[in-house]
Fold these 2 entries.
Entry 1:
Amino acid sequence: MKVTFKDISKQYKGKYALKDFSSELENGIYGLLGANGAGKTTLINIFVGILKSDKGQVLMNDVDVRHLGIDFLSHIGYLPQYPQFYKNFEVMDFLRYMCVLKDIPKEQGEKRAKELLDIVNLSDASNKKIGALSGGMRQRVGIVQAMLNDPDILILDEPTAGLDPQERIRFRNLITKFSENRIVLLATHIVSDVEYIANQVLLLKAGQLLKQNSPQALAREIEGKVWMVTVTDETMEEKLNHFHISNMMRDHDGIHLRVIDDEKPDPHAVNIEPNLEDVFLYYSGERERW
Ligand SMILES: Nc1ncnc2c1ncn2[C@@H]1O[C@H](COP(=O)(O)OP(=O)(O)OP(=O)(O)O)[C@@H](O)[C@H]1O
């Protein structure tokens, strides 16, 4: 399976939400990483056909998806940013309903729903009302409905919003489990959602694709630009005013700043190994004061 985005643009009131976005995806997990408002949902909405682009094409195996119509949708599983569930539906009834919408034959859908509920550890909840589930359980129902048609392309828009750390880890493991022989596109602004599971990260800023590479390669690209500097309360201000700081930690030796900059920020600064959060900040961060 191959998906190609070709020069996609979308404007709202003369302002670009997405500008000349081009990328190619093959089987694997892709983290679409960008700050709030970077254009992630716009791209996904264009991809799944909810939104029309002003310009550009989405191709599946080199065919424009607009020519494929319903056939394209049968290849897609989609979990929106704010999934709306019927709270009075029981889990299994909701999944049966989704099978009807997706035109999945009854017996096949029933079997698939039960298998998926088992994989996400929700078999015991299949007769519970959706309104009675925790946020994490509801997200798992969301991913089950996205997987009902055994899609080649799984699209998840901010899927870990509202999950606690343990649920977040479980969810990541689940995505990895489901990623075999599929394209998974996972939009998020939370770096740790994709740092360990994405084969490639697409870094989006103000509607434009800044970078596409593996997390490791992206981190290597900024080697030599991440520094550790120890300061005092008196000398800290100057650093905060001049540099991107990705972390601050205070202990009995002083305040340890993780600084991101092309130049050595202090004669005593030492280089440290970059991570994906540093990459995100290096390319898309504004210097913010709190
Ligand atoms: N219907 C709309 N009308 C006007 N502007 C919009 C509309 N939808 C999105 N935008 C603007 O387009 C830009 C991209 O928004 P988008 O929702 O795609 O970003 P995002 O990366 O998904 O952000 P978030 O993480 O907050 O969901 C933003 O500046 C947003 O304000």
Entry 2:
Amino acid sequence: MSDTYDLVVIGAGSGGVRAARMAATYGAKVAVVEEFRVGGTCVIRGCVPKKLYVYASRFNDLFDVASSFGWQVDASFDWPTLVAAKEKEITRLEHAYTSNLEKPGVEIIRDRALVTGPNTVHLVAGNRDLIAKYILVATGAAPFVPPIPGYQLGITSNEAFDLPALPHSILIEGGGYIAVEFATIFAGLGVDTTIIYRGDCILRGFDEDMRRGLEAGLIDRGIKLIYQTTIKSLARHGDDIAATFSDGVTAPYGAVMFATGRNPNVRGLGLETAGVKLTPAGAIAVDAYSQTSCPSIYAVGDVTGRAALTPVAIREGWYFAETVFNNNKIAVDHSQIPTAVFAEPEIGVIGLTEAEAATHGDVDIYLARFRPMMNTLSTRTERMVLKLITEKDGGKVLGCHILGPGAAEMIQLIAIPMGMTATKADFDRAIALHPSAAEELVTFKAPTYVYRDGQKVGG
Ligand SMILES: Cc1cc2nc3c(=O)[nH]c(=O)nc-3n(C[C@H](O)[C@H](O)[C@H](O)COP(=O)(O)OP(=O)(O)OC[C@H]3O[C@@H](n4cnc5c(N)ncnc54)[C@H](O)[C@@H]3O)c2cc1C
Ligand SMILES: NC(=O)c1ccc[n+]([C@@H]2O[C@H](COP(=O)([O-])OP(=O)(O)OC[C@H]3O[C@@H](n4cnc5c(N)ncnc54)[C@H](O)[C@@H]3O)[C@@H](O)[C@H]2O)c1
């Protein structure tokens, strides 16, 4: 086969696969180069195995309330069974992604790729060059680990899925998505779990009611939270790892996990040979059409540092193919992205937080807190939280924040009316579905409190 292509994609993850497939569908000759496994982070060691493990961990909560419904459950958990079942499922998905690429004629090259010029890509193991009219960099991101003494003793989300055995205890550093999701997973599976975070509350940037609500939920599930502290060093301590904190305390843990963010995969990629510029944060700088400072090179997904979410990478890959190979110049709208934190309790959000909305003029806040019906027969006191933020007097819906069972599924559907600039009156027109948690969103009568001229009134 000739080594000249219309498009060479580097990285067969969420963004790269969609772009390659769409470009090939539009008649382009396409190769995708992947150094690890087809499917990328989301399929192999991100969203998919994470959600499967979240499901596994949630049985604990179900067992907790089971007796209130008359069930007696004598349960035990086997980690190797879960790991093997996960591996089977992601291998199935990997094959599905591979055949979805092959069907429209995309050539899959298993190798590490380097950019060597505006139209050339070098294959490291194969030691040959590909010539491409266009190059798409879709190399994703990799875990950042603070370079502290003994950091090699820690793991990241990459290793967490395939630990040979569950540790008796785990210390997780970070306060973002990965830290709280994995804390939920490990705690739910019976591991003594501690989060250590340098800030004063998990999930910086999320709405305060979501942050505090999840914080309470984590504590309720026995997760310990150490705030305003970092890990200074790690050392071996028998079979355990001793972590020394910034306050001087040292404690042993069965495992230590860094969930301290992810860096775009740009290092050693040869981008400078083609004059591709980076942002100050080290991501590839792109315009609204994902074009870099080198006109023949585009970039999508996590490597561009826009929103590190699979559906966003997929949309960027798709619109790149539309723009370059289907004569349909189209830019992704990043302004209203629904997102979920698959912790326990779960969070789903879209649009402005209350703090952001309060600086945007006069807004009304509708807030409901109640015990999820599933818990009402038990002694569990945990509250579900639903918050709707609208322009004043029944105007446009600006934000929706949900904490509790089904939050992610609800927010996906709320994204539809919000994308159509729905108002509170539009929500009110919907007939409630009873009994459900979501019915709260269409039955709010008066605002719980409002902001006028930036000041909170009532509540
Ligand atoms: C633990 C975890 C959980 C997550 N959960 C969610 C979630 O629930 N929902 C959600 O929306 N997002 C989630 N994400 C984020 C999501 O996985 C990413 O946003 C998404 O995978 C980004 O896609 P991408 O195409 O940019 O990169 P990736 O999917 O990372 O793909 C990049 C690919 O490029 C390959 N590659 C890199 N360099 C080279 C090279 N030089 N040569 C050849 N190949 C190369 C890599 O091996 C990789 O396969 C999660 C991430 C993690 C880590
Ligand atoms: N459910 C989902 O959709 C989902 C799940 C997982 C990941 N993701 C995506 O992946 C991205 C990366 O996730 P993440 O949790 O790794 O990153 P994050 O940016 O959400 O959180 C990183 C955390 O590490 C802390 N931190 C950073 N540097 C540190 C240091 N030197 N010392 C101590 N703490 C430090 C930060 O304060 C922050 O709390 C997310 O932003 C998200 O876009 C999404």
